[in-house]
Amino acid sequence: MLFHNARLATMAADAPYGLPYGLIEDGAIAVQNGRIAWVGPAQDLPAALRDLPRQDLDGRLITPGLIDCHTHVVHGGNRASEFEMRLNGASYEQIARAGGGIVSTVRDTRAASPEALIASALPRVDALIREGVTAIEIKSGYGLDHQTELRMLRAARAIAAQRPIQVRTTFLGAHALPVDDKIDADDYIDNICIPALRAAHAEGLVDAVDGFCEGIAFTPAQIARVFDVAQSLGLPVKLHAEQLSNLGGAKLAARYGALSADHLEYLDQDGVQALAGAGCVAVILPGAFYTLREQQMPPIDDLRRAGVPMALASDCNPGSSPLASLLLTMNMGCTLFRMTPEEALRGVTCHAAKALGLSDTGTLAQGMRADLAIWDVTHPAELAYRIGFNPLYARHIGEPA
After folding, report:
1. Are 176 and 210 in contact (CB under 8 A)?
2. 3-state secondary structure of 174
3. Residue 185 CB burial class (10 angstroms; 0-12, 13-18, ≥19)
4. What tens digit of pLDDT does each residue of 92-107 get?
């Protein structure tokens, strides 16, 4: 297939054509065997590719397929009643005493069958697909026991078989302490989390390992024990860090060469420099900031000056970010955190790919997967500019080599 008469936002790191977004006016993309065989100005199209079947896009914009690099879309139940209680004045403690919070999601997830977990996740995945998403990360972390953590990961893998989307699975056993199970944090890490990680890896269910480093979750020393096992298994790591306080999670992530550190509202300058030195991606999650009505913003200017790549993700989850729109996430990144529209688009394409360890998607370049999003817009900034409007014209999925 040859897509032509299109604007191309290549998102190439070096912006080879000297324009923001790596923009090519009157561009063309040749696709063969699910890969980009050639991309560039239409006038430079090689003669050998001119006879491919053509699709005239009438000046539409092509970007890489969008990537949601931090989600919790597989879970049981929802927390709408908790949302309502909070707006009616209930405190966090009152909600917890009423069985709310993560405890309720853990309870509902443990009770859900594999089929129920998949069925409840698919509408959220479908919403992302309708916005041009071609790759998604899905975390475990609402089981907090051996059996349910693996069930969540199996459900995540099954989604890739039922929908045209690339799925990366992340083991998040160190998400919270299962308070109903009468176990302390160290015992949980050593006797539940780490054995579940080993079992999930043995079953081929894990692409990366995550943890929640926070006062309400786990200490850096406890997370480090999980990361040591991940490294021994050859698995990359990432970390929920500095969301509610600064425990030095970003520096811990950098020390382990993490793919990413996520949230980062309380990140300090030492943490910024650690991420920059380690080449870690900073994953910015405005949905949780918005839902929780936080005031402390991530240090976008400091990350920008340090050259830390910034990704954006929905953090789709039942409690702090019930958000299933990557386009709205882009707008939030711009309006709440003053990211630029180009930073937002890079955040859901090339930088999101890096946050997942994906080397063959996220840009429009020769040899990459032909994961494309085609938009009814004239300029890439429109994707972050509009609110509640989806200009997707078509989505094209490539295949791995």
Report:
1. no
2. strand
3. middle
4. 667 767 777 888 999 9
Give the model confidence (pLDDT) of 35-51 as tens digits. Answer: 999 999 999 999 999 99
Q: What integer pLDDT is reported at residue 17 of this predicted model?
A: 47
Nearest to 139 by CA among 129, 149, 126: 149
CB 43 within 8 A of CB 285: no
Positions of the chain with pLDDT lower than 70, given as ranges = 14-18, 92-93, 96, 400-401
d(CA 65, CA 128): 11
Task: List all residues 6 or more positions away from 125 whose beta carbon is below 8 Å from its beta carbon.
Answer: 73, 136, 159, 163, 165
Q: How far apart are CA 341 and CA 351, in angstroms?
A: 14
- Quick one: which H or E segment has residue 196? helix 194-202
pLDDT at 101: 81
Q: 43: Cβ–Cβ under 8 A, 6 or more apart, which residues?
A: 26
The answer to whether the CB of 369 falls within 8 A of the CB of 165 is no
Longest dimension (CA), the chain: 70
**How are beta strands 372-375 and 392-396 bridged, if at all?**
antiparallel
Q: Which residues contact 105 (CB under 8 A, 6 or more apart)?
A: 75, 76, 77, 79, 142, 318, 319
The span from the CA of 225 to the CA of 192, in Å, is 13
Distance (Å, whole) CA 74 – CA 77: 10
Model pTM greater than 0.85?
yes
User: What is the rounded distance in angstroms from the CA atom of residue 5 to the CA atom of residue 236?
Assistant: 40
Sign of dihedral through CA atoms 188, 193, 195, 196?
positive
Q: Using the 8-state DSSP alphabet, how is residue 369 labeled?
A: B
Q: Which residue is listed with tokens 């998040």?
A: 172
- Closest by CA to 39, choosing from 79, 71, 11, is 11
The C-alpha atoms of residue 156 and residue 191 are separated, in whole angstroms, by: 24
Which residues have a Cβ under 8 Å from the Cβ of 295 and sit 6 or more positions away?
A: none
Q: Which of 203, 215, 214 is nearest to 239 (CA)?
A: 214
Q: How many CB atoms lie within 10 A of CB 335?
A: 14
Q: How far apart are CA 378 and CA 361, in angstroms?
A: 23
